[in-house]
Design brief:
Layout: E1 10-15, E2 18-21, E3 28-37, E4 42-46, E5 52-56, E6 62-69, H1 73-85, E7 95-101, E8 106-117, E9 129-142
Antiparallel strand pairs: 1-2, 1-7, 3-6, 4-5, 6-9, 7-8, 8-9
Length: about 150
């Protein structure tokens, strides 16, 4: 397969205050959705004699960044969740975000997600993208086979 389309991307969030779609149809901004791991999986150490070792790290944490048009109703839904989840530690960090593309077979699941902060809100000539960033304790990602 040699074609990609955001129209094939499904995304959703489940957590205190709601369960709803985050992908196609949610007025996603042009910049879309980004999943980024926080740490390198490997560090290399070279000894004084030139021999070396690789160190495999267990961390699976990272961020999920969701970008929506200023007029997207998803901003309201996320804002309601944010206000609820940041009012008490009992509801904080309990979101699950799943992003998939059934055409390519990509699947990413982010667990124990917490809102990093409320996005900047700019009023300007053109409405900006609203950028919601989540810290995720564990991210599991598998890219599909596009062949």
């Amino acid at each position: 397969m040699t074609t990609y389309s955001f129209l094939d991307v499904n995304a959703s969030i489940t957590g205190p205050g709601g369960t709803f779609s985050l992908g196609t149809g949610a007025s996603v901004a042009e910049e879309g959705i980004t999943i980024e791991f926080a740490d390198d999986k490997d560090t290399m150490v070279i000894g004084a004699d030139g021999n070396g070792q690789h160190n495999l790290h267990a961390g699976q944490s990272g961020t999920v960044t969701l970008r929506y048009l200023k007029t997207s109703p998803t901003n309201h839904q996320l804002s309601v969740m944010y206000n609820l989840q940041t009012a008490s530690s009992a509801l904080h960090g309990l979101n699950t975000i799943v992003i998939s593309n059934p055409v390519s077979g990509d699947v990413t699941t982010a667990l124990q997600c917490a809102f990093r902060k409320q996005p900047p809100n700019t009023y300007a000539k053109e409405g900006p993208a609203m950028e919601w960033v989540f810290n995720a304790i564990r991210i599991f990602s598998l890219l599909g086979d596009n062949s």
